[in-house]
Design a protein that fits this description.
The complex is a heterodimer of chains A (464) and B (365). With 464 residues, chain A is an alpha+beta fold. Chain A has three domains: 1-118, RNA polymerase II/Efflux pump adaptor protein, barrel-sandwich hybrid domain (OB fold (Dihydrolipoamide Acetyltransferase, E2P)), CATH 2.40.50; 123-227, Irregular (Dihydrolipoamide Transferase), CATH 4.10.320.10; 248-463, Chloramphenicol acetyltransferase-like domain (Chloramphenicol Acetyltransferase). Chain A has helices spanning 87-95, 107-118, 154-163, 181-192, 195-202, 246-261, 274-287, 294-307, 353-368, 442-457, 459-463, and strands at 12-14, 24-30, 37-38, 43-48, 53-57, 62-67, 74-76, 80-85, 139-140, 205-206, 264-272, 313-316, 321-324, 330-332, 334-336, 339-341, 344-345, 382-385, 405-409, 413-419, 422-436. In chain B, α2 packs antiparallel against α11 (285-295), α3 packs across α9 and α5 packs across α12. With 365 residues, chain B is an alpha/beta fold. Classes of the chains: A alpha+beta (464), B alpha/beta (365). The interface between A and B is medium-sized, with 30 and 26 residues.
Amino acid sequence: MAQVKQPADKSHFILPDLGEGVHEAELIKWRVSAGDRVAEHQTLAEMETDKALVEVPSPWAGVVTELCGAEGDIINVGAVLVRYGEAETAGETAITPEPTQTTEAESPANEEREDAGTVVGSVNNDGAAPSALTRRRTEATEAPAEQARALATPAVRGIAKQLGVDINRVLGTGRGGRVTASDVERFAQHGATGEASSHQANTRVTVADIPEHSNPAAAPAVVGESTLPPVPVDPSGTTEVIPFRGVRRKIAEALDRSVKTAVHFTVVDEADITDLDRKRKEYSAITGRKLSFLPFVIRAVAHGLREHPALNAVVDEAKSEIHRKGNLNLGIAVDSDAGLMVPVLRNAEKLAIVEAAEGVARLAAGCRDRSIPREELTGSSFTISNVGSYGGRFATPVINHPEVAILAVGRGYEKVLAKDGRIYAGLSLPMSLSCDHRVVDGAEGARFLNTVKRLLEDPNALLG
Amino acid sequence: MPITTAYETRIDHVSILDEHGAFDESLGQGLIPEDQLPAIMEHLVFCRQLDETAFKLQRSGRMGTYPQNTGQEMPSLAAALAIDKADWLVTCYRENTGLFWHGLPPECILLHWMGDERGNHIPAGVNATPIAIPIGTQMLHAAGLAWAEKAKKTGAIAVTFFGDGATSEGDFHEAANFAASLKLPVVFCCQNNGWAISVPSSVQSAGETFAQRGISYGMPCVRADGNDLFAMTKVMKDAVARARAGEGPTFIEAVTYRLRDHTTADDARRYRDAGELETWEARDPLPRLQRWMEAKGLWDKSQHEKAMKSGEERVAEIISNAEGIAAPDRSEFFDHMYADLPESLKRQRDSKRTTSLGQFPEDLA
């Protein structure tokens, strides 16, 4: 990616691409403190990219006045990492983290500065355009002129120059936050009506200020973090503080995204698997492999999705498209030491019962010893969570975004059942199906669950 | 006798100054004039400083990417010592010591990795090619250059450098075959640094040595301690002499080690054993030469400190030169592809607009 442009006045250091094509890095450890005088090439911080743990040196000598981020934060390339100032004011700034170089820095502007650089999930110029479906009316920071150089082609810069627009003040709506020719023209028009000057005064614009765009893919970049103020936590009684990062953080981000994007509803039912249990034992005896119900459920789900293809789909938020899938790349929720992982069983509809069982076992083992390649963790279009193996009957599973449905299978349990006016002791399998109501209606979800139930209750139909 | 020996060979391994400080007088005596050694040591100190500083430049966003040379200083320097000004150095990207000794301004290397194409503009009079990033292409260039020099009967030769991984490329085999079959004045020097990014040399080839890869083309092959300036200088001088005498190419395997990451985009700790690194750090070519020179009275601590200080100043000056170069004019985009610029591109140049962005330069006219 392009090298970032550091400010000529050396007032702050923008995090560069630490490798090749690196977009963000986790701040592992500060090696300097606010107020420290640093030499050129002196290490400022240790940071971890997706490829490497690296030491980030200072590009010049100076006095560090502000560390823009806490250990554990994900910092985007292009965000301010540290600020520098004069030696004599450094002592003050070490106590009160007030930027020394600006006089108009009343507190909202300060917050804005911090937001712009350090928050997990915040979208700077490299951020992906958010979905038209999920775009929240949160505030987007307008890149302050002295802080970041706008991404734009030379041609667009030329237009800005002609129109007398400072391109660094224009919020880009193009790919990766690039400023387009129409952004510049729109900005110039708003300037004429006096709106731009109010933007300049508080150096931020809100999404509400930006005219709707006919193409959702070109929707403006939005700060991903909620604007709700954090609730203070009382540390008394805390016995352990665990940094919220790493795999746990990735899981949290994925779930957060799902819940904030998909409109969840859950439908539950139970299948009488008394006969299936007999079949399962037969299969186990024949194959010499102890089989759980999971491969049978996989088979039933594969059949069910063939009849109800609306549930075997993913949503492309950026393009506002629903992609129905022909084959079943099935996500299998796996509990590992590091947390939840969802490896993908490819073409699950083609697998025999034993193949499915072996496939799941292989993927689970790969997750648990962390040997699973990255490509086996992406590309699923429906997910099964076998919560029953840990206990519990029903659940309200969270959809594995951008899929549209997930089935949680509870623990099969012995139960008094009734059929044709006769009472008997049978085995019952609880199932909970969550769907994205934006894509799947309640009736469709219930029909799918019915199909799965019918197949599980009739092993000959399932296995025939 | 139905079975006879069709071919038999042997690969020599040359070592003169070993990692324990032992020096083979019979081979090493007079190989490098003693009065030249302090200048060589100063050069090495400077190159190592530049290398370590370049790494930091990348980390602070002042350079796009950078492959460190540290640990592999000797093979290319030995080549530069063994060849004449008119000879060609056709390198990969871990040959800074040789390139600088041969006359390439260090600013060129920095500019190249800063993403400025002008870094590849080799000054007239320096017979070196731009550093080759695609693996192995330069070996063909070396064969071609050597062929041209042979045709022109200039007596000049070419020395090319590549890694152990590059010997698995088709380009290597084509270049080696042409060079050997046509008896071209080339020296092929393989810097076997143990790793092709994350692929260890043990996986790269099932052969005992990389040197033997040259055998099938019919060229003499030799292996040398790549961290030993004297051993490298000896095998280079022999190979250069053969090339100069019209006897064709030689294949040299320099056994060395990449002490740093592959590039700044790599983290070798993820795939490399810490113990292996430690073993090779003990074989670091610079301290080895320094200790020997100190023992011989050719170098002392104060000289070293002086070299460190002047090296540091020179590095700062070179960085300042490279970073201070004026940005090219935007219209230069258009200057180097066409002798006669087509009308459509002229419009783009003049209007600074392009139809590919949905802008129509004609509209501005």
